[in-house]
Design a protein that fits this description.
With 955 residues, this protein is α/β, with parallel strands linked by helices. The protein contains 33 helices and 31 strands. Its EC number is 6.1.1.9.
Length: 955
C-alpha cells in the first residue's frame, strides 16, 4: 500500500540497498550474454573530492543513458572509479601531517610518506563514491577502479615505455606553469586567472651608441611591462616590422638598464603598434609568448628566478654571461630576494637612474594556482613531454570521419582549434604521489626507460659495457649481484601528470594491457558525458591514446554539457557565497527532485540556472504523481495480466493509450538524441497535464460510478498507464519510480531491469472495424481506422474527441483568467455554426464541459451573439457572451494599460542591449538576464494583444 506522504529519504536509502543487494547494475548478466553492450566510463572524480553540482549534472545524464539502455535490454557497463589526483591528495596528507605536528613529507622520506597517503586513501578517500550512490548512479560498483590500482599502473608504465620507444615521449627544456609554493609544474586546468588591480611600468631602454638622457626620447626606447622584476632576463626588444617609428632601429641594440647587457632590437609581428609604445621587452625564460619570439629569433633564454620564486643571480651562468665588468655586484645585491620584494627594489633603482618613465594603474588577469593560491610563474625547466602534435593527427581524423561525433556538434570546432594549435604536452610533475616515471639515469646522466628497474639495469649495463665505461666482467658481476650496482642508476623522482593515467581510462579499466574478455566486449565505449572545460585535457588525450594503442576511437559520441549556475546566471563560487550543495538539496527535497530539476534545464548548448525553488517545483511534481498513484490504488486500479490497451472500447481510454504511445515516442527519441531536457519535459507535461489533470479528472465519474465493463476497463487502463509512466520516468527519477513499481505493479522483478515501453502494435483496419467504441455515457461511436503502415498505436478519432474537450475547457479557463472573471462566476457558452460532429461531442460531454469550464449552459447558434467574445477551437468558433458579466470598457482600459507597461519594458531592455559598452562590459549573466526579460515582455505583450483583439469583438 502506498504511504500517505511522499518521503524521499526513506525511499532512497531503501532502494539503494535493494539495488546493491540484487546486483541490478552489474554488467555481464547471464541473461544478457548475447545482448548488445552499451558502455560508459565515468569521468573519474578526484579521490579527495566531494559531490558538487557539476558532478550531479554529469552523473545524472550518464545515469539516464545507462538506465534507459539497460531497460532496452542491452548489456550495460557503467564503469566507475576515482582519480588519484596527485597535487590535491598530496596536499591533503601534508596538511594532515602539519595539523598533527608530525614530521613533514621530506623529513619522513618518500616511502613512508606514500604509505601515509595510501593509509589516508583507505580510510577517507572515495567519499564521493558514496555520494554518487546517494544521487542514484547505477554504476557497476563491483568493478570500481582507481587510477593507481596495480593493473592501471601497469598500463601507465607500458604506455610510457612504448611511446618513448616510438619517439613520442622525450625530455626537453621548455616553459611550464610553475607553482612556487607547491614546487611543481601544473597543467593549464590547474591555473586560475584572477583579475588584479596592478600597475603598468614604462621603462626607458638606452639605445646603444647614444648618450642616454631621460629628456632625450631619441636616446632610448620605451617598453611597458607588468613584471619589471623579469627585465633582468630580457634578451631582446621587439617592434612590429611595419611600425615606421622603429624601422631604422631594427637590427641595432639597446643596453639593458641596471644589468648593462647588450640586447638586440628585433622585428616581430607579435608586437602591437596600437598598444603602449609599440615596443615590448622579450624575456624568453619568463613568458610563454616571449618564449616563442625567442625561438623565432634564436634568442638566449635567461632564467632569473629559482623554483621558489626568488631572484637567482649569483652563480647563474646564463645571467652572468656577457655582462660588463662590475655588473656581478648587482647580482650579489639582489640575489635570493623574493620576486615581489625584488620588483619594488628594481623599480626604485630604475627610477633612481632615470630609467622609469611613468607608472599607470592597470587591471589585468594574473595566473594563480587553483590549490596553492599563489601567482604562477612561467618557468624554464627540464620536463618530460608527449609529442602531442603527432598524436593529434589520428584524433582529428576520427572526428572528421564521423567515427566520433560531438553533441552539440559545434564543440567539434573547439576541439579542432585546440588540436590544430596543440603544443607539446608536459607530463612530469615534481610530486611524490602518482605514477613515478619509469626512467633511470646512469652516472653520466644517460636515460634508460624501461618497465622495471631490472630491465633498466640490463639496458644500462649493456650500454656502459659497449661504451667501455665498465668491463664485461664488471657488468656481469653487477648483473648477478645487486649489491654491487647500488647507486649505479637512479630513478627519476618525478611522477606523471594525472591526465596521463586518466587518458587510458576507457581501456585500462577493462584490464588492458592484458587481453581480457572485458576489453573485447566493452571497448570501444559508446557515449562519453563530460564538461566543455576538459575537452582538451581529457577528451582529446583519451582520443590520442585510444587510437594509438587500441586502433579505435574510445567512444562514438561525446556529449558536452555546460555549467550549472545560480538562479541569476552567475557562476557558482565560494567567494560569491552562491554555491548550492547537492547533498543539502538531496537532504531537503530528495535526489529525484534534484535530478529532474537539472535534467529539465539541461538544454544542449545552454548553461543551467538552478535555484532551490526550481528543485522544490520538481519535488512537487513527484508529490503530485505520488498522490495520483494513491488515487489509483484507492480506486482499485489494477492491471489484469491479460490486459491489452489496444482492445479498449471507451473513447477516453483509447485516448490515453494514444497519448501514452505519443509520449513514449517523444521520450525515447529525446534520450536517443541526447535532448535530455526535451525527454524530461515531455514526461513532465504528460504526467502533470495529460494523466493527472485530464485523464484522471475525466475518468472520475466512471471510477466512482456503478460497476460494469466501462469501470473495469478504466481501472485497468489507469493502472496500465501508470505502469508505463513509471517506466518512462525511471531514468530520470529512479527512486520514486522503483518504489511505486514495487507497491503498485504487483509483479516480481525490479523496475530497473524491466522492459522499456514498446510502442503498442497497431491493429489492422479489419480488426478495428469489428470493434465498437463507447462514449462517456455508453453510446456507440464509429470505429477508428488506423493505416496499416503506422508504426505505433494511434487513434485519431479518440484524440479528436477528447482533444476537443481538453482544448475547449482550456480556452475557456484561459479567457476567464485574462478577463479577471472570478472562478465562481458561471457563464454561458455558444457554439457557432457547429458541425454535426461537434454538436454530438458537445452533447456527449456536456456535463463534463460545464463542470470543468464553469459554464452555466452550452448552446448552439448559427452566428455568435452580440457582445460575445469569440475563440477558435480546433477550427470552429465558440462564443462567450460577456455583456453583463464584466465591464468590457473597463477591461479594455486595463489591458491597454498593461500593454503600455509591456512596451515600456521592451523599450527599456532594448536601450540596454543596443548599448555596445553595456554588452561588452556587463557580466555575461547580466546580459543574459536582460535578454530573458525582453523575451518575457514580448510573450506578455503577445497575450495582451490577443486578449484585446478578442475583447474588441465583444464591444
Amino acid at each position: 500500500m502506498i504511504e500517505k506522504n511522499y518521503q524521499p529519504a526513506d525511499i532512497e536509502s531503501r532502494m539503494s540497498r535493494i539495488w546493491e543487494e540484487s546486483g541490478a547494475f552489474k554488467a555481464g548478466r547471464p541473461e544478457r550474454k548475447d545482448a548488445t553492450p552499451f558502455t560508459i566510463v565515468i569521468p573519474p572524480p578526484n579521490v579527495t573530492g566531494s559531490l558538487h553540482m557539476g558532478h550531479a549534472l554529469n552523473n545524472t545524464l550518464q545515469d539516464i543513458l545507462c538506465r534507459f539502455e539497460r531497460m532496452r535490454g542491452r548489456d550495460v557497463l557503467w564503469q566507475p572509479g576515482t582519480d588519484h589526483a596527485g597535487i590535491a591528495t598530496q596536499m591533503v596528507v601534508e596538511r594532515q601531517l602539519m595539523e598533527r605536528q608530525e614530521p613533514g613529507r621530506r623529513d619522513m622520506g618518500r616511502a613512508r610518506f606514500l604509505e601515509r597517503v595510501w593509509q589516508w586513501k583507505a580510510e577517507s578517500g572515495g567519499t564521493i563514491v558514496n555520494q554518487l550512490k546517494r544521487l542514484g548512479a547505477s554504476c557497476d560498483w563491483s568493478r570500481e577502479r582507481f587510477t593507481m590500482d596495480e593493473g592501471l599502473s601497469r598500463a601507465v608504465v607500458k604506455v610510457f615505455v612504448e611511446l618513448h620507444r616510438d619517439g613520442l615521449i622525450y625530455k626537453d627544456k621548455r616553459l611550464v606553469n610553475w607553482d612556487p609554493k607547491l614546487l611543481t609544474a601544473i597543467s593549464d586546468l590547474e591555473v586560475q586567472q584572477v583579475e588584479v588591480k596592478g600597475s603598468l611600468w614604462y621603462l626607458r631602454y638606452p639605445i646603444e651608441g647614444r648618450t642616454f638622457s631621460p629628456d632625450d626620447p631619441k636616446s632610448f626606447i620605451v617598453v611597458a611591462t607588468t613584471r619589471p622584476e623579469t627585465m633582468l632576463g630580457d634578451t631582446a626588444v621587439a617592434v612590429h616590422p611595419d611600425d615606421e617609428r622603429y624601422t631604422d632601429l631594427v637590427g641595432k641594440h639597446v643596453i639593458l638598464p641596471l644589468v648593462g647587457r647588450k640586447i638586440p632590437i628585433v622585428a616581430d609581428d607579435y608586437s602591437d603598434p596600437e598598444k603602449g609604445s609599440g615596443a615590448v621587452k622579450v624575456t624568453p625564460a619568463h613568458d610563454f609568448n616571449d618564449f616563442e619570439i625567442g625561438k623565432r629569433h634564436g634568442l638566449p633564454q635567461i632564467s632569473v628566478l629559482d623554483q621558489e620564486g626568488s631572484l637567482n643571480l649569483v652563480d647563474n651562468e646564463d645571467y652572468l654571461r656577457g655582462l660588463p665588468e662590475g655588473a656581478s655586484q648587482f647580482a650579489e645585491e639582489f640575489h635570493q630576494i623574493e620576486r615581489f620584494a625584488a620588483r619594488r627594489k628594481i623599480v626604485a633603482r630604475l627610477e633612481e637612474f632615470g630609467f622609469l618613465e611613468r607608472i599607470e594603474p592597470n587591471t589585468h588577469m594574473v595566473p594563480h594556482g587553483d590549490r596553492s593560491g599563489v601567482v604562477i610563474e612561467p618557468y624554464l625547466t627540464d620536463q618530460w613531454y608527449v609529442d602531442a602534435k603527432t598524436m593529434a593527427q589520428p584524433a582529428m581524423a576520427a572526428v572528421r570521419s564521423g567515427e566520433t561525433t560531438f553533441v552539440p556538434k559545434n564543440w567539434e570546432k573547439t576541439y579542432f582549434e585546440w588540436m590544430e594549435n596543440i603544443q607539446p604536452w608536459c607530463i612530469s610533475r615534481q610530486l611524490w604521489w602518482g605514477h613515478q616515471i619509469p626512467a633511470w639515469y646512469g652516472p653520466d646522466g644517460k636515460v634508460f626507460v624501461a618497465e622495471t628497474e631490472e630491465e633498466a639495469v640490463g639496458h644500462a649495463l649493456g650500454y656502459y659495457v659497449e661504451q667501455e665505461v665498465i668491463t664485461p666482467e664488471q657488468g656481469h658481476e653487477m648483473a648477478v649481484d645487486s649489491s654491487k650496482r647500488e647507486g649505479f642508476i637512479t630513478r627519476d623522482e618525478d611522477v606523471l601528470d594525472t591526465w596521463f593515467s586518466s587518458a587510458l581510462w576507457p581501456f585500462s579499466t577493462l584490464g588492458w594491457p592484458d587481453d581480457t574478455p572485458e576489453v573485447a566486449r566493452y571497448y570501444p565505449t559508446n557515449t562519453l558525458v563530460t564538461g566543455f572545460d576538459i575537452i582538451f585535457f581529457w577528451v582529446a588525450r583519451m582520443m590520442m591514446m585510444g587510437l594509438h594503442f587500441m586502433k579505435q576511437a574510445p567512444f562514438s559520441t561525446v556529449y558536452i554539457h555546460r555549467l550549472v549556475r545560480d538562479e541569476k546566471g552567475a557562476k557558482m563560487s565560494k567567494s560569491k557565497g552562491n554555491v548550492i550543495d547537492p547533498l543539502g538539496v538531496i537532504d531537503e527535497y530528495g535526489a529525484d527532485a534534484l535530478r529532474f530539476a537539472l535534467t529539465r534545464e539541461a538544454a544542449q548548448g545552454h548553461d543551467i540556472r538552478l535555484s532551490p525553488h526550481l528543485v522544490e517545483t520538481n519535488r512537487n511534481f513527484a508529490t503530485k504523481f505520488w498522490n495520483a498513484c494513491r488515487f489509483a490504488e484507492m480506486n482499485e486500479c489494477v492491471k489484469p495480466d491479460d490486459f491489452d490497451p489496444k482492445g479498449a472500447k471507451q473513447t477516453l481510454n483509447r485516448w490515453i493509450a494514444h497519448e501514452t504511445s505519443r509520449v513514449t515516442r517523444e521520450v525515447t527519441e529525446a534520450i536517443e538524441s541526447h535532448r535530455f531536457n526535451d525527454g524530461a519535459g515531455a514526461i513532465y507535461r504528460f504526467v502533470w497535464n495529460v494523466f493527472c489533470d485530464w485523464y484522471l479528472e475525466l475518468a472520475k465519474p466512471v471510477l466512482m460510478g456503478e460497476e460494469g465493463a466501462a469501470k473495469a476497463e478504466t481501472r485497468a487502463m489507469v493502472a496500465w498507464t501508470r505502469d508505463e509512466i513509471l517506466k518512462l520516468l525511471h531514468p530520470f527519477m529512479p527512486f520514486i519510480s522503483e518504489e511505486l513499481w514495487a507497491v503498485t505493479a504487483r509483479r516480481e522483478g525490479l523496475l530497473v531491469l524491466a522492459r522499456w515501453p514498446r510502442k503498442p502494435a497497431t491493429l489492422t483496419g479489419e480488426q478495428l472495424a469489428s470493434m465498437a467504441m463507447a462514449g462517456p455515457n455508453g453510446e456507440i461511436l464509429p470505429p477508428v481506422i488506423v493505416a496499416p503502415d503506422e508504426d505505433d498505436f494511434s487513434d485519431p478519432a479518440a484524440e479528436a474527441e477528447i482533444g476537443w474537450v481538453v482544448d475547449l475547457v482550456t480556452s475557456m479557463r484561459s479567457v476567464k483568467a485574462e478577463m479577471n472573471i472570478p472562478p465562481s462566476t458561471l457563464t454561458p457558452l455558444v457554439i457557432s455554426g457547429a458541425s454535426s460532429e461537434t454538436k454530438d461531442r458537445a452533447q456527449r460531454w456536456n456535463d463534463t464541459i460545464k463542470r470543468l469550464a464553469r459554464l452555466s449552459d452550452v448552446s448552439f447558434a448559427d452566428r455568435p451573439p452580440e457582445g460575445a467574445m469569440q475563440l477558435l477551437v480546433r477550427g470552429e468558433v465558440v462564443a462567450l457572451p460577456l455583456k453583463g458579466v464584466i465591464d468590457l470598457a473597463a477591461e479594455r482600459a486595463r489591458l491597454e494599460k498593461e500593454l503600455g507597461k509591456a512596451d515600456a519594458d521592451i523599450k527599456r531592455v532594448d536601450a540596454k542591449l543596443s548599448n555596445e559598452k553595456f554588452v561588452a562590459n556587463a557580466p555575461e549573466e547580466l546580459v543574459e538576464e536582460e535578454k530573458e526579460k525582453r523575451e518575457a515582455a514580448l510573450e506578455r505583450k503577445g497575450k495582451i494583444v490577443e486578449a484585446l483583439a478578442r475583447l474588441k469583438q465583444a464591444l
